[in-house]
């Protein structure tokens, strides 16, 4: 049925459109802070990050910073060997590759008080692997391609939810 596949294609584009180039302000209106006990774990868990999205940290640079660290040092609140340090008070981090990105504040006590966030960006709709890609410029285009489903356990619940919703919409679309 032509209308069915057209519908699927439309949904695919809609999904990709929602997915790419979004700007997320960490903590929303609260911003990046150790005050107010913002639950950054919950904040990131309710987002669907993609390659191309921009993560914005807004904070008072007199009192805070943003430091990207390894998973291990994220867990330990250890900022002694950072990948990068940001301190302008209005910092943007663009997700260039699929992967997991960990940020903490290294102002004493802040990370332990919960000022830490991990951003997880799966690859495309059917990520074969979430690990860092060796060739950043060659990441697969999000065109509706044959879904070669690799290891599915890497995919987030949210991804499956989105696909489930898309499927449901398809079913209802032809009903
Ligand atoms: C912090 O991380 C660095 C580099 O990973 C490591 O050498 C150091 O032992 C760590 N410090 C603590 C207190 O865990
Ligand atoms: C942060 O930067 C963005 C874009 O560069 C700008 O739109 C926004 O108003 C800035 N926020 C603050 C608090 O300066």
UniProtKB/TrEMBL annotation:
Q: Which UniProt keywords apply?
A: Glycoprotein, Metal-binding, Signal
A GO CC annotation given for this chain = plasma membrane
Location of the region described as Disordered in the Swiss-Prot/TrEMBL record: 121-153
In terms of domain of life, where is this protein from? Eukaryota
- Where is this chain compositionally biased, Pro residues type? 129-145
Gene Ontology molecular function terms on file: electron transfer activity; metal ion binding
Q: Which Pfam families match?
A: Cu_bind_like
The signal peptide stretch is 1-21
Do you know which InterPro entries this protein is assigned to? Cupredoxin, Phytocyanin-like, Phytocyanin_dom
Residues annotated as domain Phytocyanin: 22-123
**What's the protein here called?**
Phytocyanin domain-containing protein
Q: Species lineage, top-down? A: Eukaryota, Viridiplantae, Streptophyta, Embryophyta, Tracheophyta
């Amino acid at each position: 049925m032509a209308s069915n596949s057209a519908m699927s294609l439309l949904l695919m584009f809609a999904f990709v459109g929602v997915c790419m180039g979004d700007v997320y302000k960490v903590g929303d209106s609260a911003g990046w802070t150790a005050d107010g006990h913002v639950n950054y774990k919950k904040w990131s868990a309710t987002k669907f990050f993609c390659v191309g999205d921009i993560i914005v940290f807004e904070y008072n640079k007199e009192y805070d910073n943003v430091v990207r660290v390894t998973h291990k040092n994220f867990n330990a609140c250890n900022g002694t060997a950072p990948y990068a340090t940001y301190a302008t008070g209005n910092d943007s981090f663009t997700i260039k590759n699929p992967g997991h990105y960990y940020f903490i504040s290294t102002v004493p006590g802040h990370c332990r008080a919960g000022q830490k966030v991990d951003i997880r960006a799966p690859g495309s709709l059917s990520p074969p692997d979430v690990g860092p890609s060796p060739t950043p410029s060659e990441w697969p285009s999000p065109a509706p391609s044959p879904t070669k489903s690799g290891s599915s356990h890497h995919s987030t619940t949210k991804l499956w939810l989105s696909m489930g919703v898309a499927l449901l919409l398809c079913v209802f679309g032809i009903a």
